[in-house]
Amino acid sequence: MIGDIAKLPASVEDAALARPQVSIATVGDYVALLKPRVMSLVVFTALVGLVAAPGTIHPVLAFTALLCIAVGAGASGALNMWYDADIDSLMSRTANRPIPRRRITPGEAFGFGITLAGFSVVVLGLMVSWLAAALLAFTIFFYVVVYTIWLKRWTPQNIVIGGAAGALPPVIGWAAVTGSISVEPVLMFLITFVWTPPHFWALALIRADDYARAGVPMLPVVAGAAATRRQILIYSLLLLPVGAAPWLLGYAGPTYGVTSLVAGALMVAFAWRVCTLTEGERAASAARQMFAYSILYLFGLFAVLLIESVAGRITG
Predict the structure, then answer these.
(1) What is the per-residue pLDDT across 139-150, written as a single tens digit (0 to 9) for each?
(2) What distance separates the 2 farthest-apart alpha carbons in the chain?
(3) pLDDT over 90 (residue 19)
(4) What does the alpha-carbon distance between residue 316 and residue 313 come to, in Å, rounded to a whole number?
């Protein structure tokens, strides 16, 4: 009897805590964990790699490959939010995510992410290609472990190195069709890899106070706004020839060549504006415009690659 009494909660509050908690998460909360806006760009670049690859793939297998890539990207997002829950709650940009709002517990997010990661890799391997599955597994590992857990809180070069994860989807799409890797998907990888720093640093300039409050060593926090603006310009200048490389090396047509040169020149122009406008609302506006245009830049280049690939299959 005494032992039974000892097991009773000490207070009403303890009793409440001892009861199983009912999850209040909705479908929308779980969708938010997947970072759907990021996922959409990942799926699109993977689609371009899949369509541009030589050879054929059954439509069902093509859909399966894209679904697995999307689920893998969503798993990365959920695991990123699980680990970053502490800093997400300190930043205005991320404070409304499901975990900081206590709609989903970190444990639920972790389980959700791990389940999706395992599902996406295994299904892609069994149904489509084990090389594509291995690349997807490496992408998830790189984004979650190398970028989120290690680089993000350790070095201002986090986004430069970590950008490799976001650049791999077209390579995965290509491997799903061919079972191999060649120059063309590597060029797509390089375009996204070089594009990532100026794209993300434009946002970091606007959100520098957020990152400083959370203790994340983003470049504007560690090196200052002036150094960040110079790096944005340097990477944008580098992106101009890298973006044109598929055309320069004969892997894309003249439409892509013209598009890459014009879009790349505009990217440099936006970066120059960010670099020269350094104070007040005009500087913040320049950074926001740079960030918005950079998304359009990448979408435009990959859209033209997709159109040229489809046109080549029709006429060929």
Answers:
(1) 999 999 999 999
(2) 86
(3) no
(4) 5
Q: How big is the chain, counted in residues?
A: 316
- Please tell me the distance from the alpha carbon of residue 92 to that of residue 308, in angstroms, as a whole number: 41
CATH architecture of the domain 26-180 equals Orthogonal Bundle (1.10)
**Which fold, 182-316?**
Four Helix Bundle (Hemerythrin (Met), subunit A) (1.20.120)
Rounded to an integer, what distance in angstroms lies between the CA atom of residue 20 and that of residue 185? 49
Lowest mean pLDDT among 11-15, 170-174, 223-227: 11-15
- The candidate with the shortest Cα–Cα distance to 162, out of 145, 174, 175, is 145
Task: Tokens 């509050």: give the residue.
Answer: 13
- Distance (Å, whole) CA 135 – CA 73: 12
Could you read off the pLDDT of 67-85 as tens digits, one per residue? 999 999 999 999 999 999 9
Say how far apart CA 241 and CA 168 lie, in whole Å: 20
At residue 128, φ and ψ (nearest 5 deg) are -125, -70
Equal CATH topology for 26-180 and 182-316: no
Domain locations in the chain as residue ranges: 26-180, 182-316
Q: How far apart are CA 70 and CA 74, in angstroms?
A: 6
